[in-house]
Known about the structure:
Helix 3 packs antiparallel against helix 4 and helix 7 crosses helix 8. This protein starts with a strand and ends in a 22-residue tail after the last helix. The strands form 6 sheets. The chain has a 6-stranded mixed β-sheet, sandwiched between helices. A 4-stranded antiparallel β-sheet has the order 6-7-11-9. Strands 10-8-13 form a 3-stranded antiparallel β-sheet, with helices on one face. It is about 25% helix and about 25% strand. It is built from 11 helices and 19 strands.
Amino acid sequence: xxxxxxxxxxxxxxxxxxxxxxxxxxxxxxxxxxxxxxxxxxxxxxxxxxxxxxxxxxxxxxxxxxxxxxxxxxxxxxxxxxxxxxxxxxxxxxxxxxxxxxxxxxxxxxxxxxxxxxxxxxxxxxxxxxxxxxxxxxxxxxxxxxxxxxxxxxxxxxxxxxxxxxxxxxxxxxxxxxxxxxxxxxxxxxxxxxxxxxxxxxxxxxxxxxxxxxxxxxxxxxxxxxxxxxxxxxxxxxxxxxxxxxxxxxxxxxxxxxxxxxxxxxxxxxxxxxxxxxxxxxxxxxxxxxxxxxxxxxxxxxxxxxxxxxxxxxxxxxxxxxxxxxxxxxxxxxxxxx
Length: 338
């Protein structure tokens, strides 16, 4: 802390609040601790009787909180992200589009491990809407060592910590399996549910086939829609019942299976595979038809943003993968998948 003449304080950082009193009109903090003095502030300060000011001693090795927040913002802000104004050392980031919020968790944790730096975000790899808040950045003190921000820069490098990916897969083929539906014994209530879930992401069902339970029939249907849609969804026949042939048929169709089974409830019997051209194919368990939120809701945003999932991704779903079955479902504003 250093005492200097007010007339020489431009660009300096105030050490404490400065109270202004206008009799009968106003009494309060005119300038807050941490405020950077401007040329226009000088006559105001002098009118308040402040001939001298206590300021933080700044040098080339120190940064004001606002300048440090700007650096953290730059390290975070990737594609399709907008930023707000810096305010009291904090900058908020928001999405410019509907899309998938992606996050480099390793870099985020490394930066947050540096004392006096902080970046708070929403859960990575979740669906966001245009205007949704994504993150906030700031440093803890009013003045911070520049070396700490330099360390953060070296950790992150040239690739920002976060971005929002647009949804690129716009069409889907649905294959409904099951003799009971194929023969008209019961109504297909699964496909309408899928149409609504997909519509929320502007995905259109362009192909729909209903087939019997036989493996050959299912493989034939899969081959018939290959290349006609951006993804393939198979419903029915996903359990371990001997008559449930869908998982075997998906494998027999030539798909490379990522997983058959997921540590998520509801949705344990989910299947995901990819064809050689990158087209994803999914086997959806019956819970997707009647449960408000399932593994399909966790996976779908990644699929339509063309983010390829691995077995490790599904393993990570186990933490947070238990739906609590609330009487009034508030998904995605709940712990499921978080």
